[in-house]
Design brief:
The protein is an alpha/beta fold. The protein is built from 9 helices and 7 strands; from the N terminus they run ββαβαααβαβαααβαβ. The longest helix is centred in the last third of the chain and has 18 residues. Bound molecules: shikimate-3-phosphate.
C-alpha cells in the first residue's frame, strides 16, 4: 500500500499542529491544517463559525475541506479533533493518533488556546467528549503514538514509523 498523505488525529490540544509542522519538515512534505484552511477560506475564526452558523455547518465545512485536501498527495495534514468522529477520511491516508491523556492535554493548552476552542469552554464537558471519542480515534488510526511525553520526545517515534511505510 502506498499512502497518499499522513493524517494526524487526536483530541483538541494534543499537539497535532505542532507535531505536524515538525513532521512535515523532517519528512520533506507539505504541512496543511484543516482548521486554518477553513478559517482562511471562510475569512472567519472557528469560534465565529460555531457562533454564527452552528456546529452542524462547521462539520459540513470540515468534511468538504478534508475531501479537498486529500485530493492532493505528499502532505502532513493536521485535523481538528472532531474530524474522525464527524467526517470520513480517505482510506489512502496513513492515520496517526496523537494519544495523550486528558490531564496532559489540559496542562498543554494555554488559556488563550482554550479560548479558541468552543467545545473546550467547559472542562468537564470536554472530558466527557474525550471519553466518548477515544475509542473512535483508536479504531481509525493505523498507528497510535504515546503522546504523554514532550512533543520532541515522541516525534521521532512517529518519524521511525512513517519511514517504514510508503507515502507519496
Ligand atoms: C474541535 C476541535 C478543534 C476545532 C473545533 C472543533 C472538536 O480543533 O476543529 O473547535 O470537535 O474537537 P483542534 O483539535 O485543533 O483543537
Amino acid at each position: 500500500m502506498v499512502y497518499d498523505n499522513i493524517v494526524l488525529i487526536g483530541f483538541m490540544g494534543c499537539g497535532k499542529s505542532s507535531v505536524g509542522k515538525v513532521l512535515a519538515r523532517k519528512l520533506y512534505k507539505k504541512f496543511v491544517d484543516v482548521d486554518s484552511t477553513i478559517e482562511k477560506e471562510q475569512n472567519c475564526s472557528i469560534s465565529d463559525i460555531f457562533e454564527s452558523k452552528g456546529e452542524e455547518h462547521f462539520r459540513a465545512l470540515e468534511q468538504k475541506c478534508i475531501n479537498e485536501l486529500t485530493q492532493n498527495t505528499g502532505q502532513v495534514i493536521a485535523t481538528g479533533g472532531g474530524v474522525p468522529i464527524h467526517s470520513t477520511i480517505s482510506d489512502k491516508s496513513l492515520i496517526i493518533y496523537i494519544d495523550a491523556d486528558f490531564d496532559v492535554i489540559v496542562n498543554r493548552l494555554s488559556a488563550r488556546e482554550r479560548a479558541k476552542r468552543p467545545l473546550f469552554d467547559d472542562e468537564s464537558r470536554a472530558r466527557d467528549l474525550f471519553d466518548q471519542r477515544i475509542d473512535t480515534y483508536k479504531e481509525q488510526a493505523n498507528f497510535s503514538v504515546d503522546a504523554n511525553q514532550s512533543i520532541p520526545t515522541f516525534i521521532h517515534v512517529i518519524v521511525d514509523y512513517v519511514l517504514d511505510r510508503r507515502v507519496k
